[in-house]
Structures are given as structure tokens and as C-alpha cells.
Amino acid sequence: MITAAQMLGEMERQVRLAKQTQNEGARREAIYAVRTLCNLMLGDERPSVPSIPQVIQTSAVHATPITSLNEQPLREEDANGESLFDF
């Protein structure tokens, strides 16, 4: 069984992570984790994001941005230029 002290300790760790990170996604994830832990301690039945297994992880997850494999602008034979306003 998870004790209140363990949950409070995890909240403290997540708050530290939120304060230290420069990554907005990681900061939001840590804040959601704190909210989820608070909801659990208060007995709130509303689901929150992320789910419980994600909150209790011991390592932080860093998302990488999705980039296009082909970053060249689309070229069409009948276009006059790169701008949408070139007719």
C-alpha cells in the first residue's frame, strides 16, 4: 500500500522537476502528476492526465518534436513563386 508520506514525497519531487526544467512539456507533465496525486489523496474520482502509471515513474520522459522528413517547399509547375499571394 502506498502511504500518504510516499505520495507527498512524490509530489515534492514533481514540483522540483517542474521548477527546474526549461521544457514546457516536461513542466506540464510534472504539474499534471502533482494534480493527479492530489486528487488521489483527496479521493477525487475524476480522471486526470496523465494516468496513474505515468505519474509513479522514476524517470522523466522528454518528448521530441516531430519534424518533416522533407523540409523543401512544394514546387508546382504553374506557380509564380513561393508566396501564397504570388499569382
A few lines on this structure:
The protein is an all-alpha fold and 87 residues long. 46% of the residues lie in helices and 0% in strands.
Short descriptors:
mainly alpha, single chain, 87 residues
Please provide a written account of the structure.
The model has no long low-confidence stretch (mean pLDDT 76). The chain is built from three helices and no strands. The termini are far apart. Helix 1 runs antiparallel to helix 2 (24-42). The chain is 46% helix and 0% strand. It is mainly alpha-helical and 87 residues long.
- The radius of gyration over CA amounts to 22 Å
Oligomeric assembly: single chain
Number of helices: 3
Head-to-tail CA distance between termini: 68 Å
Please trace the helix and strand order, writing H or E for each element. HHH
Beta strands, count? 0
Low-confidence stretches: none
The structure class reads mainly alpha
Beta-strand residue percentage: under 5%
Question: Helical percent range?
Answer: 40-55%
For the biggest sheet, the summary is: none
Average pLDDT value?
Answer: 76
Molecular shape: rod-shaped
Write the layout of secondary structure elements.
Blueprint: H1 4-20, H2 24-42, H3 52-55
Helix pairs in contact: 1-2
